[in-house]
Each structure stands twice: as C-alpha cells, then as structure tokens.
Amino acid sequence: MSEYACGVPLGLGVDMPRTPAVFPPKVKWTLKEQVEWGGASGQAAAFQGVTRTNYSSAVGFSAEVEAVLWKQEALGQVLVLSEVEARRIYGDRLTIASLAALEKGVTDEGLVDVRVLHDGTNGVDVNRYILILDALTSPMAQDIKASMRLQAASGAAHFGLTLDVESAHRLVAVRPEDWPLQACQVRPQGKVFLNKRGTFGVASAAYWWGRLAAALQRSGLCILGPLLPLWALLFADDFNLTAEGKMFAKSLLAFIWWLVILGVPLSWKKSRGGFTYTWVGYELSLREWSLGISASRAAWFSGWLTRTIEAKKIDTGELREALGRMVFIYGALQYDKPFLAPLFAFLKLHRPGVERRLPLYVLMVLRWLRDRLHARRAHVVRRRATVDRAVLRVDAKAEGLAVAVGGWAPFYDESGRIVVAKSRWFSVKLTEDNAPWAFVSGVPARAISTLELLATTLGLVLLAPPELDTPGRAGTVAVTGFTDSQVSSAVVSRGLTTAFPLCCVAMELSAQLEARGAELFLDWIPRGANKEADLLADGCWEGFSSDLRVVADLGNVSWLVLRGLLAAGQEFYASA
Q: pTM score > 0.85 for this model?
C-alpha cells in the first residue's frame, strides 16, 4: 500500500508490478508493440510529449468540460497551471491529450452533465508504453450462475444488494512525476489541467483501481466474514453483495460500513437490491433462482432485432457493435449462444462500415433469437438433479462413402456395474439423400467433427433419460456424456463455433437441451475406452439386445432447427 500512499506510477518508463497471489498473468495487449516498447524500454526512455486538440464533442461542450475540471481541481484531483508555467516545469514530458465529452444527462440544477474522456492513446502514445503484467478479471455470467447455484443449494433465503463506487479510478493518487503525462486543455493556449489522480483513458487506471479494490474486498471479507458472512462480486466499480438468513441485513450493512470507513465514495442513488434486482445489465432473481437480462436491455435488443429483420439489411459496423452486446447477453441466456455463429460468419465476409443485405441464413437466426427473447429473458440456474454417471456414449464413422453414427445409454445395475445387454442403443446410417451435408466434395471424412456432434445430439433426442422429462421442473438437470471427439467436447463446453455445418448441429443440440431443461457436460475419452459406441457406429451391435434398439431415420427425427439451418447455410456458403 506504500505506493498508493505516495502515488502510483502510470507505467511509462518503469516496469509494472506483478501480483500472482491475486491476478493471473496478462498475456495479450491491445497494441502489438506494447510488449517491446512497454515498461522501462529504450523507446519509453526517449518519450517526448505532444500537444493535441480536443475532439468535437469536447469542443461543443467546452463550458461543461471546463466546469468538470474546475470541480476536480477543488477536490484536489487536478493541478491547474498556465501553459507557459506548465512547459517551464515539465518541458518535453508535458503531454496534452485530446478530450472527448459524453453527455450523461441533466443535473438537479438543470445543467448538462458530461463525462470527460481522456485519450491517452491516439497521437500522444502514452498507453503504448504502459505494459500491464496482471490480467484483471471480472465475474461474468458463468461466475454469477455458479455462486447462485451454491446459494440455492443451501436452502436458505437470500437477499441481494448492489453498490456503485463513485469515480473509482479517481481514488488512486498518481506520483507527481507522471502528472504531465495526463494533461489536457479546454482551449488552445488556455489553462493546462494536470490530472493528479487515476484518469479514465490511461491504460493503467483500471489496473491500479483493480488492485485497490481487491485489497478492499478481500480484507473486508477476511475481517467480517467469520461472523457476518456474505458473497461479494465486483465488476469494475460495481459491487454485488448477497447475504442469507436472519443476519442478512447486518452482513450487508457491515460490508458497506467497511467501505465507508475506508473512505470509498459510494453513489447511493444507484444502489439497488431485493430478491430480484439488476446488476451490470443482468437480472438476478433470488426467489426463482434465475439469471437473465434486465427489462431495459431486453427491450433494446428486441427492438434492434425487429428493425433489422424488417429492413433485411444492415451496416456491418452496427452489426459488429451489436455482436459485442450479444456476447454479453448470451452469457446469461446460454442456450442461444450457439446461434450467434451465422452472424459472426456473415460479418467476417464483409469489411466494416458497409451496408449489406442479410441472407436467409442470418435472418432465420435473428428471428429465432427474437422469438426466444419474447418467450423468456432469463433461465433458471438452480439445479434440481445431477446425473453423475454418463447417460450417453456416442461415436461416428466416416470411411470412404460409409457414414454412420451410433450410441447407447449405459444401464447400471444395483452395484453400479454397466450391463450392455440391458442398455438402449441406436445405430443410424447416413446417405447423400438424408444427409447431403455430410458428403462434402464426396469425402465424408471432412465432416467427421460434425458427425461426432450429430451423434451426441441424436443420442440426446433418442435416449434422453427420464430425469429430463419430469413435469413441473424448476431448474436444470446436469447430465454427462462421453465421446472420443475432442472437437465435440470443446464445442459443447465453449458453446459457440462458426465452422459449418458443425455450428448448425451445435444450435440444434442447444435447442434440444433447453427443451429438456438440461445441461450437458460432454467429456472426452480415448477411443479405446469407447469401443461399444465405436462398434455401433460401425454397424456392429454384438452384446446389445435388439429389443432395446431405438430405430430412427434422420428424415423422421423431430429436429427443432437443424433442417432449415442446414439448407439455408449451404446456400449461404455456396454464394459466399
């Protein structure tokens, strides 16, 4: 904490610290040259500051921007000098960056409120020389889901509360020798405002706040936790606190008081809580134990989908921005995540900023996403059952023009031993008539990954265990399957692939899982350990009972989306 006491370095000309006990290592940076130029490199030592003009948004709100800067000066966050004095004191190190302004709304006094954005990258290149070594991590949908499942499993009532830290990055003092690296002006030749605190737009601001937040959060949990336990998640500067039982109010208020006595400024008007509340765009229900997206975010997305479908065309720049939001949305609505694949495939074919007509393949997916969003904007995350034993073992075969898939649902006796003769099974041959997509250029082996995932999907449809068909379900069932395809296992765990036709089968599998309220964990096993499924795919069912065979033809399977997506996808890729 000694660095925080006297001021942290921005990272230009110095090597940033590494904190392995708190953060994983950072391995990717925005700018390629940061790896060579960052830290105490020769390029950083030769750095010279420049002077930039402001962007049009800051020019248009110059009075409002200046008011914000003078307010920060009054709080001791900014040093104000004349340009002549600033250049005399700091010389070539003075770096006056471009400002932008984002309108936030109207204050209680009727004045326009703006967020001032400091550009530490373009033209000034301060960020180019900052090499952060710790990777900041934030809880995403899967982390929220994991914590909610553990909370639900306790059987106790829970209450949630959100807190917003006001101007979090401004809590961190910057060492005086780095103040000139984050300077700005409202008007050319006017007063120079030098930021003495962490500044949004400088690469290291989020890092130094992240380290401070980790200390605040961990120390609070360590000291308060034994007597007043609670869950604490932090996304950037937004806390999500959850406590249970009779002591829930004391636990929540104690953690808030911990932040208050340490001087953390909280935006009280942004606090929310209850049994159902929103946090960083997600909606958490601690009554239904569901996770979804907020009503406002759902309304925006529904409107965007409708407008895009009706227009049947889109600007690729707009689509890129929308896809960024969709990845966030479908972290919570995980069954729809595979349906983003056609959108990514379409975007990859076209350069940014051009308007293009939408093919049927993309329109089908957009309609599906809109219809599902209208049907629900949350999923129950509570698990009502977990099937630890493997319920499926599947495999596929593609040798020459012989293509088939097979699988079985292991039957376990009272001792837990698998009895093959009592297990249900299937073996289906594929032909150019019932599965033309499998015969890519006449060589089915090229579609082997798709065939492996098709075997899993067909196994789920034909051999779904009784647990997946329980009426009145209030949660998901976790089931495990085995395959000797590493690709299939990766697709199921990741939830998204753009490879065609593999993505179409992934979409069908996800739709089938949602229809059953199930989650599938597809584990990879060596081919030698999957010999029964391998033989079934080869058309050999020795050891299995013919009475337990589930006879199926691909043309008669009750697919939910597969047929239409395959047909539209083939047309899309043929014309791409």
A: yes
Indicate the DSSP class of residue 174.
B
Q: How far is C-alpha 58 from the geometric centre of its chain's CA atoms?
A: 32
- Say if residues 439 and 432 touch (Cβ distance below 8 Å): yes
Angle between helices 502-516 and 562-575 (to 10 degrees): 160
Neighbour tally for 137: CB within 10 Å: 12
Q: Please state, in angstroms and as integers, the Cα–Cα distance from residue 247 to each residue in 159, 163, 310, 434, following that order.
A: 10, 19, 52, 61
| Whole-number Å distance between alpha carbons of 212 and 388 | 41
- Cβ neighbours of residue 235 closer than 8 Å, sequence gap 6 or more: 138, 139, 279, 280
Count Cα atoms within 13 angstroms, Cβ side, for 205.
25
As a 3-state breakdown, the chain gives helix, strand, coil percent values, each rounded to 5, of: 45, 25, 30
Q: In what order do the strands lie in the sheet with 192-195?
A: 78-81, 192-195, 183-185
Tell me the per-residue pLDDT of 120-139, one tens digit each, with 9 for 90 and over: 999 998 999 999 999 998 99
**Model confidence over 9-68: pLDDT tens digits?**
999 999 999 999 999 999 998 888 888 888 888 888 889 999 999 999 999 999 999 999
Taking the CA atoms of residue 305, residue 311, residue 313 and residue 314 in that order, the dihedral angle to the nearest 10 degrees is -50
Q: How far apart are the first and last CA of the chain?
A: 57
Residue 63: burial class (beta carbons within 10 Å; 0-12, 13-18, 19+) = exposed
Compute the Cα dihedral for 472, 478, 479, 481 and give only its sign: positive
Spatial distance between the Cα atoms of 133 and 369, rounded to a whole number of angstroms: 39
